[in-house]
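It is worth pausing here to work through a concrete case rather than discussing structure prediction in the abstract. The textbook approach is simple: state the sequence, then state the predicted structure, then interpret. We follow exactly that order.
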Amino acid sequence: MKEDAPMESTTYREMVNGEEEAVNALVEGVFNEFVAPDYDDEGIAEFFRFANPDAMKERIRSGGFVLVAEYGDRLAGVLEFTPPNSIAMLFVTVRRRGIAKGLLSQAMKKVLVANPSLSKLIVHSSPYAVAVYEKMGFHSTGKAMKENGIEYVPMELSLNGENA
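Step two, the predicted structure:
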């Protein structure tokens, strides 16, 4: 990066109604590039039964939320939370700018306001993303598993400073 190049800023906010298509396009692009190559056809189909605009709208109606990150003037990341304590999706297109960590931080603030006694967040990480989650403080709680073609590693993040 040139010294005189301006740093683009990142803003975080809740997804607004009508953005589901754009958010899912980001998810689909990142999934297809980094995760899908390790999945079979069953796993890819199962992922897209979960990751689509209609399913996302339904999860939001059921108490979940979606945060987006904008880097400069473009959508750069998405985090979906489902109650009571799950990170359902975390996908980022701009890497090495702290966007995933920023989305997680914003989600934790929002979740803890609603539920101050929450002690941990959980995620079923794709094998590809395990290292990313570890850098953000998550640790594995079991061996890699496969359900309906979806390969994942169960992980959690303690919100009270303790590791389980």
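Step three, interpretation. Strands lie at 10-14, 65-71, 74-82, 86-92, 120-125, 139-140, 145-147, 150-158. Helices lie at 20-35, 41-50, 53-61, 99-114, 130-135.
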